[in-house]
Amino acid sequence: MSTYNKGGPISSGTGRNPQRNVRPVSSVWPAGYLKNGYFDDKGNLLPAVVIDWPQQIAKMFYKDNLQTAQLRKFFAEVRLIESQLMAGKDFNNLKPRILKLQAYAFYSNKKHNAPDVFKEFFERNIKWASANSKGFLEGFVHHFECVVAYFPKAN
Fold this sequence. Notes:
Blueprint: E1 4-5, E2 8-9, H1 47-50, H2 52-63, H3 68-86, H4 91-110, H5 116-129, H6 133-150
Helix pairs in contact: 2-6, 3-4, 3-6, 4-5
């Protein structure tokens, strides 16, 4: 994230809490998930991006014990990048921050603050989210926003 503590992203929790095992129970991704990205052949957002897939992913996150604070922390970073793009900052200048989301998810997973499925979510999305500003703003942001909305503990 954009907040650092001596060279690394600040994590919520120590990562050593034996009470909270965040390794995956199971993760079965929706059929055809991101096979061709967020858009159809005409450049329109696929309905599954904001309806079906987010519902299923939110359930996987919840089942695998993703903490609401962790989800919100990542979503806040995505919103910050979005606001900078909307304010006119060049996409190529912000692209490294988008790409780093995958590394931050890996780090959170490694520290046992997020389940494998959360790390996999970013691994699957970063290719499409970092392709161009449309992929990020009109694809990934909408997709992630809906995942957060459908997450049972976030409501």
